[in-house]
Design the sequence.
């Protein structure tokens, strides 16, 4: 039952500000409130699906119209509280690691603990604080866990704009942040939407994508994206894309790294996002030699677990094939060739051929 204290627009405005203050105390960089209007994206989204740009991610084509109707994801939804949290540690190098081909590059959001758990816990805590003040307000927390157009919601909430690289860009913080949503039945006052998209004539993200995954501005063919290939895709990686993957073994940050708005990025202060097992500076060879038990142990509580051991070996094998000639790499690949799955063997053999044909 909602508190009788919420009888006027002033009461609700005060509560909205309290929510934003609490969010900041909980480690969020920003919170905005919106009553999203998402039907306008339906035709464009369906066209993207029809063109097969979602690759093998069938869940993106499922659930009918749910992603366009927030009130059906959570009954009684009146507003969505959109929040973001920085994830890039100050100590972590980015470009330098990409230019060191014997080192592994892991997308920077995945170096620490699984962000789903971190953010969901904070969202639930925020919802409980609201509950302490207003009573049962009806809510549901989401962190990349349901058919939600989270970037469109954040854009409508005035948190930033969707860039040509399809990521949300903030004029105050670039794009090194993660999003979460709290659906609520409270009729809170809403924030002003972003008035325009400030990419201008810049197309650095499109030009610098290693696999040319951008069909046009704001349109990503995910089936060619390195993040998709190394995380979501479970089969053979197309031969024509392997050499373009470099040392990227889990995800890709290139379209963020070249974005001019990145200069406004803020570093995280969250310990949970600090690198675990020195993954920000690990040698490819060391990771390739992990047993399945080691992989499971060292990726416990990490987003990397999602890719699975077989895909992990596949990804690292490709990176070793792209590394400079090294007899130790060749020896490791030959040994792995004798005891791996058929999928991994295909990529190990490709890597071996690359190494043997490019002696220094």
Sequence:
């Amino acid at each position: 039952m909602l508190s009788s204290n919420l009888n006027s627009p002033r009461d609700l405005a005060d509560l909205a500000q309290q929510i934003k203050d609490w969010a900041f105390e909980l480690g969020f960089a920003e919170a905005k409130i919106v009553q999203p209007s998402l039907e306008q994206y339906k035709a464009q989204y369906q066209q993207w699906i029809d063109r097969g740009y979602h690759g093998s991610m069938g869940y993106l084509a499922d659930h009918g119209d749910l992603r366009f109707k927030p009130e059906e994801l959570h009954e009684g939804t009146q507003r969505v509280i959109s929040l973001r949290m920085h994830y890039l540690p100050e100590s972590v190098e980015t470009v330098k690691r990409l230019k060191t081909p014997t080192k592994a590059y892991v997308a920077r959001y995945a170096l620490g603990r699984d962000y789903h758990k971190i953010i969901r816990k904070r969202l639930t805590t925020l919802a409980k604080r609201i509950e302490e003040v207003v009573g049962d307000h009806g809510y549901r927390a989401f962190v990349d866990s349901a058919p939600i157009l989270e970037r469109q919601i954040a854009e409508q909430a005035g948190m930033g704009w969707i860039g040509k690289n399809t990521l949300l860009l903030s004029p105050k913080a670039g794009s090194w942040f993660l999003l979460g949503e709290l659906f609520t039945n409270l009729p809170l006052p809403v924030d002003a939407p972003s008035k325009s998209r400030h990419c201008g004539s810049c197309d650095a993200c499109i030009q610098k994508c290693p696999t040319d995954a951008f069909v046009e501005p704001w349109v990503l063919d995910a089936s060619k994206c390195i993040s998709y290939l190394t995380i979501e895709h479970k089969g053979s990686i197309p031969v024509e894309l392997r050499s373009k993957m470099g040392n990227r073994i889990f995800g890709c940050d290139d379209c963020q790294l070249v974005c001019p708005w990145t200069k406004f990025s803020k570093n995280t202060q969250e310990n949970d996002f600090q690198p675990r097992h020195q993954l920000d500076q690990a040698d490819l060879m060391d990771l390739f030699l992990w047993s399945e038990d080691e992989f499971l142990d060292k990726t416990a509580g990490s987003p990397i677990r999602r890719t699975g051991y077989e895909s992990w070996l596949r990804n690292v094998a490709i990176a070793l094939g792209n590394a400079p000639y090294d007899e130790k790499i060749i020896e490791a690949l030959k040994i792995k060739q004798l005891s791996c799955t058929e999928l991994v063997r295909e990529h190990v053999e490709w890597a071996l051929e690359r190494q043997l044909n490019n002696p220094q």
